[in-house]
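INFO batch 0412 | record 1 of 1 | parsing
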Amino acid sequence: MKKIITLLLTAAIITSASTAFAGTIPRECTPLNADERAVQITENIISPYLDEASDGLGYALACGRANTAIRKAVIANETEGYSYTDLSPIAQNAIRTVCDMRLRPEAYKQAEDELRVLLADIIVDVQNGKDYMQAVKEAYIKIYRTVEPSFNYDEQFSLDTCYRHIPAVGSEKFTVAKRLLLEALQNSVGDNTAYSET
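INFO prediction complete | emitting tokens
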């Protein structure tokens, strides 16, 4: 009897642990201008659809369901004043990333292996208190310059979108770069309380 109770308790703990993080938006895939409260609200609304995307539901269907749920929540005034245009991009990025990670895990592993080396100095700088947003910009520049060494970030992003010449880089590299920098921020020796983005 004691073994059965122990087995049931173990199963309950494992089940609760595995569902505690169900439907969580990976913070590295949120838009840079999204604040943490908007991400939390979006997460609460779209959690079931993130789970479905992780389990194999396609991007378009998962996004359609998530956007419908967001629209309903906005109309019902359940989003603390955040609009559909605030929350929908967060949902779309999260679902796209979750689907992409499921379909191309090796690309994310390879990106992490490469970026831990390429961005090592920036990661250490963030751990030592460097501003996260500045670090993201510097990381993006380094990533773009692996493809085109002469790439001028400020010049290109100052142009109208149709005139920009941006090197082709896999989106997984930017996602992984943000994750590595967020991990560094969590291990920072400075004060992280001012950081409200993801």
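INFO post-check: Residues 1-21, 192-198 have pLDDT under 50 and may be disordered.
INFO record closed
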